[in-house]
Structures are given as C-alpha cells and as structure tokens.
Amino acid sequence: MVYMYLVLFIVYNLQFLSGVLGVKDWKVTYEKPHICALKGSSVTIPCSYQYPRGHRVNETFWINKRETNKDPEDLKQDQHYHDRVTYLGDKSEDCTFRIENVEERDSATYWFRLVTDQVGGKWIGEPGVTLSVTALQVEKSQPSATSQATLTCKNTCFPKVHNDYVWFRDGKYVLNQYDNVLVPEENGMYSCALRRSENVQSAPVKVSMELSVSPSGEILEGSSVTLTCNNKANPPVYRYTWFKNGAEISQSGSQKNYYTITNIRSEDSGKYRCVARNTHGTGTSKLYSVDPTLQWTHTAGLRMELKSHREDQCRITTSLTSPLRTAESTIVSDNIVLLVIITQNE
Fold it and tell me: Where would I find the Ig-like domain in this sequence (predicted)?
C-alpha cells in the first residue's frame, strides 16, 4: 500500500515539474491542413512547433519530397522554388512559411522539418499541409457565331463565391460587373479575377459580335439580302451604324440592327460590318463579305455579240439573260479567243 502511494507521488511530481520547467515533446501544429490557392497568387502556411527541453535548434526548413534513407532537401535548394519561398518563422516556436506566385505543379504535400543539436534531434511534422493550386477559367457559352455569348468565371477553389469577381476587357475594368457570369456588351478579350486579387487573372477569352445573313447560302444577283447585327447588350443598344468597305452607309434604316439590300448587284459587293452603341460604349462586328453570284434566267431581251480576233464577226440573239445590264467573259475554244459581251436591249 505504501509502495502504491509512493509511485503515485513520483508520477504526480514528474507531471508537475514538466509543467513548471517547460519540458516538451516533439510537436508541429498546422493551422490549415488543406489549402486551395489560385494560380499566380501567394500562399502563407501558418505553423507552430515545439521540441524537447535541452535541445538547441540548428535548422528549420520546409520540404515536399521524402525518400527512404535519405535526408530531405530544403525547398530553398530546389531550383523550382529557391526564389519563391520564404521562411517567416523563427528557431523557437513559429514555423510559418510562404510561397510566392504559385503554379499548378506546386500542388503537393508540404512538411516542416526541424533539426536540433542532440542525437536523434531530427523531426518532420505530420501530417503536413496539402496545397492544391488551380487557375481561374473563363468558360464561354455561344451556341453559334451569330448568337450572344455568355461568360462564366470558373473557380474550383471557392465554388460558392458568385458575386465577388471583377471582369476585364482588353486589360481594362468592366465597370459594375461583380457576378461570376457576364454577358459581354462589346467585342474584345475578356478575363476575370477575384475582387481584392485583381492581379491574379484568368487566361483571356475572345468575344466577337458577328453578322447573320438571311437567306443563308449563296447570294444571287437580283435577290434581296438582309444582314442582321446580333447583340443583346445590357443596357440595350440604342444605335446601330452600318459600314461597307470602311465607309458609313447613309441609307434609311441604317440605324436599325439589320441592313437590307434589295435587287443585289455586283456593285453591292464588299465587306460589311456593324457598330452597336449603348451607354457603356461600342461593339464592332467582324467583317462579312458580300459577293453576289451571276444568275442566268430564261427571258428575252438580250443581244449577245461574239467577237474574235479575226475580221469576221457574227451577231446572234439569245434567250439567256442576266439581271446585269452588261457582263463580259472570255471563252477559249479551238485555239480561238472569243470575247462575249452581253448588253441589255433598249
């Protein structure tokens, strides 16, 4: 009975002395065991540690590779990390670590390594910190080249964040747009970022407004063609301006989102585009080439002259006609070059 009380007395006093004298065991505490970071950002890993009393700390560093029977290497010695990592801790209890400009290949598990002056004074803190690096991505939804585009900023690190974003067009802020979904109002290269982290942007995505043509398919001379400028901007477009070969088209209806060419002829050939304007600015469509194809019809009223390099000429009347007043072509047959001139009868 006396022996039992003696043992309990010794154990109690050892625990008491441990608390009073500061006797400690090996321990590493990671505040955030799992960290997700955006590509291009900087990551701080909070960490604290303790070690047995009587040891003096010689080395403190971080590692992300471990091999059997081989001392791990300080990340500062790794060429991929040496100018991007900083040990923010000390040699007493703080082991905080920082990685700048993280890349997707930095995704790994990181451990704090402690070496003291005593035999066996080497310690790696388990379980380490798992770092996942991902990039912001802009996903474009556009059913066809002539339909309105919708952009979504994809963020796998913080998927529940929806209204804490900023958008850029050609490197400049898109004002008053903070949602992760954007309907572009103008053509350009669009990228997104999280607010307060504007320097970490997604890769840019191109958005362009295009023209649709009705009817689709081959454009025939004499037919009617309507070009439509597809742009569902917000705020809405209040003016459309049409251009042909770089010059503004002054014609009734040119301020509408469509432009109609009736009884199209060869002189209507050219490159067309529209410019849409709202209170935020302008958007310009891609160029659309109009090149009507000659269409022959069976109707009387044309005279076709066949002229050769010989002195003789022949003149015949044909029932093949074209909506054009004059058309010329060259025919090569039996080594005789004939110039065909078609003119409309008066």
Answer: 127-202, 204-291
